[in-house]
From TrEMBL:
Organism (species): Psilocybe cyanescens
Gene3D superfamilies linked to this entry: Ribonuclease Inhibitor
Protein name per Swiss-Prot or TrEMBL: F-box domain-containing protein
Domain of life: Eukaryota
Length: 347
């Protein structure tokens, strides 16, 4: 068994894993474990077959540790959606869950929370309905082991924040999302890693009191990703006005290239590592003098990495400097929602 397990784990083709199921009882167990451990495939037919198998075999369901629903929005009356809602209740060892949209048909209501068998460590969703904010709060109240969350919120009703008590998810360390997510999850928690998907409206006058209320929690951050998730014509998303709040920041990922953000680095003397990323379609333009200017601005800086073109799907290519005088190294990494860029770069 000890020899077979690492061999089977190297097999990534699902067809080959199915063939291994038929060879012997030993290969059958190991192939099942690998085959049903993770589902991230976008193909609808593959998803339907996977969920059907999980629903009909509790041993298969017990193997599932990672499940990503298709990225495209699923209609609530869709067969896949209904099948997923039932299948989730049998995935007792699930640790990572990604769904395009959180809604009541997907997970149990408040009084049925005990029927959720898993203890998540990583969770991603989008919440649109104001009613689903409350349901999400109740769901997270039953997930005390959650470490990382990526949540897209579209409502700005102050009342929704009351659904996300700081007593929920006490172990949360990484938060990714827009300002609405920061307001809901950053206060009174020990979050040290933040991926802030900014919008120009975040820095409008009416939001200044909100930023001031979050400032004490910015002081706890060791890692920050800052910038718009999509291409934007807005030029009002600047780090400079709030840079002085990040007094303990060690690693910064700037999404897009804004010349004034280089000036902001002078206000973060604790900075050890800097990356400049493209985001989704945000083009980086960084002249050679930029690297020298950055190192001159940050006395404790150990490296600078700037994303390059081209990059394949879910891949990023970085050129990395440890000094302006040393030729840069080239790194290619696979993008991960639940890992910040400095965990992925081999530096």
């Amino acid at each position: 068994m000890e020899l077979i397990r690492p061999i089977v784990e190297l097999v990534h083709d699902r067809g080959a894993l199915f063939n291994l199921l038929l060879t012997s009882s030993v290969f059958k167990f190991e192939a099942e474990r690998v085959l049903y451990c993770s589902m991230k495939d976008e193909d609808r037919k593959t998803q339907m077959g996977f969920l059907k198998a999980v629903l009909h075999n509790s041993e298969y369901a017990a193997h599932v540790c990672v499940y990503h629903a298709p990225i495209g929005r699923i209609h609530k009356h869709d067969t896949l959606w209904r099948r997923l809602g039932t299948a989730l209740r049998s995935m007792c060892n699930l640790k990572e869950l990604v769904v395009a949209e959180f809604s009541s048909p997907l997970l149990p209501a408040t009084q049925d929370r005990k029927s959720i068998p898993f203890a998540l460590e990583r969770f991603q969703c989008r919440v649109e309905s104001i009613h689903d904010h409350k349901r999400l709060g109740h769901f997270l109240a039953g997930q005390p082991q959650l470490l990382k969350i990526n949540v897209e919120m579209v409502h700005d009703d102050p009342a929704y924040i009351e659904h996300f008590s700081s007593t929920f998810t006490p172990k949360l360390s990484l938060l990714r999302g827009p300002l609405e997510a920061l307001k809901a999850f950053l206060p009174e928690r020990g979050i040290t890693m933040l991926a802030w998907e900014t919008e120009s409206s975040d820095f409008s006058p009416e939001y200044l009191p909100i930023l001031s209320s979050l400032a004490p929690y910015f002081q706890h951050l060791k890692y920050l990703s800052f910038g718009p998730p999509e291409p934007s014509v807005d030029k009002d998303t600047y780090l400079l006005p709030i840079a002085h709040h990040f007094g303990s920041l060690e690693y910064l990922d700037l999404v897009g290239s804004r010349s004034c953000d280089i000036e902001a680095l002078q206000r973060i003397p604790s900075l050890k590592g800097l990356t400049i990323s493209m985001g989704r379609g945000v083009v980086v333009v960084a002249p050679p003098s930029t690297v020298s200017d950055i190192f001159a601005s940050c006395p404790r800086l150990q490296f600078v990495a700037i994303e390059q073109l081209p990059g394949k799907r879910r891949k990023k290519v970085f050129k990395s400097w440890t000094s302006p005088q040393v030729p840069p190294a080239i790194y290619t990494i696979t993008v991960s929602t639940f890992h910040h860029i400095f965990e992925l770069l081999p530096i």
